[in-house]
Amino acid sequence: MALSASGARDGDRGQAHLIEIGAVGAILVVGVVLTVAVTGVGPNSVTADTEEVNQTAVELSTEVEAAAETSLSDGSLKRTLLLWDTGDGTFADGAGTPVAESQEGQFLAHPQTRFGERLEAFEASHDVRINVNAIPRYQPTAGNPSSPGERGERVPIITRGAPDETARTVTVSLILFEEDTLNPPRDAHRVDAPSIRRQTASDTAVADASNYPIAEGDAVDAQRVYNAVTIEVVIWDE
Known about the structure:
Layout: H1 5-30, E1 33-35, H2 48-73, H3 76-81, E2 84-85, E3 90-91, H4 114-126, E4 128-136, E5 155-158, E6 168-177, E7 225-237
Antiparallel strand pairs: 1-6, 2-3, 4-5, 4-7, 6-7
Helix pairs in contact: 2-4
């Protein structure tokens, strides 16, 4: 029996969502890639202070790793990436969070999503600053060389300052699909809730947003994947 066009689309979306669940699950099983800058010193020059600083750096990075994993699972990390205002050409969460007057239009304060709230609380309790960047895995066919997004390069999402030599980096990966809409509902991308409506009829699909800073990958050709994105969370001492 032939499927209707609507049924085919629903099937594609369901299959894409199952792929996303599997991809995120694999990420969580493998764990978050954690890079900690450790000062190189000779064996005779290691002091208690140096060891304490390095241990603190590892502990802080581990806490941010946990926050990123949780935000990946509850969908708030992906939702933060999709809070894009096509009219203003900036990230915007609908709650007045200030954004940069720049080409990228990144958040200058943590957005009012669960991911942003976790980072804000972490900054306040540990006297650190946190930037968030998105790095597309697949490059666009052609793009504007003056636009970092269209070159497929690192795209700033949240910019809280300029990292210094104390910076540590945590990364996670997620998948953007062509039919993911901008400004999705709060729980639209929860990994444990496949029945939640993931698209909103009133908003633009990411593949149709001409000024979205994360480029559509040219090499992506399966299951309506828009691009695979590495999220880079950079922590440094305030």
